[in-house]
Amino acid sequence: MIPFLLIFLFSFSRVASADRHEDFLQCLESQNFNSISKVIYTPINSSYSSVLQFSIRNSRFNTSATPKPLVIVTALNVAHIQATIRCSQKHGLEIRVRSGGHDYEGLSYVAVIVPFVVIDLINMRTVTVDVANKTAWIQTGATLGEVYYGIAEKSRTLAFPAGVCPTVGAGGHISGGGTSMIMRKYGIAVDHIIDAQLIDVKGRILDRASMGEDLFWAIRGGGGNTFGVVVAWKLELVPVPAIVTVFNVTRILTEQDATELVHRWQYAIEKFDDDLFSRIFIYRANSNQEGKIMIQAAFTSLFLGGVDRLLSLMQESFPELGLVKEDCIEMSWIESTVYSAQFPRNSSLDVLLSRRYSSSFFIGKSDFVTEPIPEIAFEGIWERLSQVGVHLAELQFTAYGGKMDEIAESSTPFPHRAGTLFQIQYAIIWFEESIEADAKYTSWIRELYSYMTPYVSKKPRQAYVNYRDLDLGVNNLGYTSYKQASIWGTKYFKNNFDRLVHVKTAVDPANFFRNEQSIPPLPSW
Ligand SMILES: Cc1cc2nc3c(=O)[nH]c(=O)nc-3n(C[C@H](O)[C@H](O)[C@H](O)COP(=O)(O)OP(=O)(O)OC[C@H]3O[C@@H](n4cnc5c(N)ncnc54)[C@H](O)[C@@H]3O)c2cc1C
Ligand SMILES: *[C@@H]1O[C@H](CO)[C@@H](O)[C@H](O)[C@H]1NC(C)=O
Ligand SMILES: *[C@@H]1O[C@H](CO)[C@@H](O)[C@H](O)[C@H]1NC(C)=O
Ligand SMILES: *[C@@H]1O[C@H](CO)[C@@H](O)[C@H](O)[C@H]1NC(C)=O
Ligand SMILES: *[C@@H]1O[C@H](CO)[C@@H](O)[C@H](O)[C@H]1NC(C)=O
Ligand SMILES: *[C@@H]1O[C@H](CO)[C@@H](O)[C@H](O)[C@H]1NC(C)=O
């Protein structure tokens, strides 16, 4: 349905766009003395494709049918961003802003309304750490790996509570909340943002004081490409001990054992110390000799302390796992970021700076669980995992609780706080480009999601905006419907959705910054 619409719109707008394209380029060059032409890529530039593809992280949006931007501006400074905003407005072009490019639905570099322009922030990625004040200013084109590396250069006992994958961009990630392996101790990334630099729809550069607390609240989790272009965040760093402990214990289980252990985990996490983070990756293992389905569950943890205390806590709260000292590795927090990103042991910290990412086709969905899932329900999950023949189909269960329970739902747009037992991410990954494969895996994950309905949060069934999922609903093209947006909006933001709409109405009433799932303004009539 959507791909068809894409192609349709694309071909009709092509002719008219040629002129607009020229006018737009002239506008950009006239706006600016900052040699902007060195950072403007159109399809006639030989490096256009490589610049576009460099930060595409989902091969589903890397095909010949994917709509491509008319222009990519790899801005070097604020003036380049301001000029692009102004000229796009003048010539009626949509804008997409890209930081790390990890958007699950490719919204940072694909637009259904064409022609469009991509502002790519890859060149704006300075990380400046102030150890004495325990703060950092980071430009939003920085990846999380670059942020962690920059902090570690100055201190091994300061950290920032943001995501696990080092190539995720600070721009999109923090705009959507930012969960991490220290969230049970410190909450999420947006709970530690203390200032920001934003370019608004009028091209003004705003900081926390000049944007006001409503807008500052909204940009901390209300989703990217909605309120303006965030150029930089000011982080409040958090203390971590010099030694932390990690483990990744894999259990290959018959269906029966898997059910028991995973079922028990749901009760154990309620008792976990805030220093202990826990996640389970669940996927299908090879069948055993009798041809029985085997489920593999990798119990992965980061503990903010040494191994001895960890072992005694685990003995108290989750003895069924049978964790032993040999499973555990002590290291610094920065080394744990390398470990969790699954680089080989003892890799140099330099791997955090790499933007290389192996390409695959990917679909993800999310859920929040508020009551333990009954044992019987797991059987249906194992069955579905075992039926799909694919490179990887998995569920990730991430324990909430701890500090997350103490932060009010309305304190930032991210509402999944007290009452959340754990989060689920469903993911399916494959390598072959084919319409059949895409259709097959799309329907597989939708069916699993539907199967899970009775076992997850209700009214609304919550979802995490950073695991963007257009199946939850999309805005109308061309005009805005509050009612339509409230369907996906309340899933991502619960009651915060209304406040986000009010902020949006105040700062961008004409809905210049938008995409299929951006907060709409209220109509002015
Ligand atoms: C392998 C992998 C691991 C992940 N791990 C985690 C995790 O541990 N925790 C977690 O919370 N999430 C995680 N995510 C999800 C990730 O946080 C989101 O996909 C996030 O939106 C990506 O940000 P980005 O800058 O890389 O993406 P982009 O695609 O560049 O941007 C995402 C959205 O934000 C907008 N945007 C980007 N930059 C700006 C800006 N400067 N100003 C305004 N809008 C902007 C874009 O237009 C787009 O709408 C993971 C994703 C992947 C693929
Ligand atoms: C792209 O081509 C145009 C026209 O030749 C040129 O002005 C511009 O500098 C090129 N862009 C880059 C990044 O080289
Ligand atoms: C996109 O396609 C190009 C080749 O056309 C390839 O080199 C690149 O790895 C692909 N990237 C992704 C994420 O699929
Ligand atoms: C801490 O921040 C304040 C305010 O920004 C600044 O004046 C001061 O110099 C900083 N302290 C140090 C030690 O850098
Ligand atoms: C945990 O172990 C599993 C099974 O060996 C492996 O696939 C996974 O990559 C490991 N995870 C981490 C974080 O090391
Ligand atoms: C990693 O380094 C530590 C300490 O330098 C060493 O004891 C250990 O054997 C190394 N591990 C691997 C897998 O090389």
Descriptive overview:
The protein has helices at residues 2-31, 48-54, 78-90, 144-154, 170-175, 183-186, 208-211, 213-219, 255-268, 307-317, 333-340, 375-387, 435-451, 482-493, 496-507, and strands at 40-41, 71-73, 94-98, 116-120, 127-130, 135-139, 158-159, 193-199, 205-206, 229-236, 238-239, 244-254, 276-285, 294-303, 328-331, 361-369, 392-399, 422-430. It folds into three domains: 14-120, Uridine Diphospho-n-acetylenolpyruvylglucosamine Reductase, domain 2 (2-Layer Sandwich); 127-239, 2-Layer Sandwich (Uridine Diphospho-n-acetylenolpyruvylglucosamine Reductase, domain 3), CATH 3.30.465; 244-331 and 358-455, Vanillyl-alcohol Oxidase, Chain A, domain 3. The chain is an alpha+beta fold. A hairpin with a 4-residue loop joins strand 5 (127-130) and strand 6 (135-139). It is built from 15 helices and 18 strands. Residues 1-15 have low confidence and may be disordered. Helix content is 32%, strand content 20%. Helix 1 crosses helix 3 and helix 9 packs across helix 12 (375-387). It is globular and about 70 Å long. It binds flavin-adenine dinucleotide (FAD) and 2-acetamido-2-deoxy-beta-D-glucopyranose (5 copies). The site of flavin-adenine dinucleotide has 33 residues, from strand 3, helix 5 and strand 10. One 2-acetamido-2-deoxy-beta-D-glucopyranose (NAG) binds at residues 345-346.
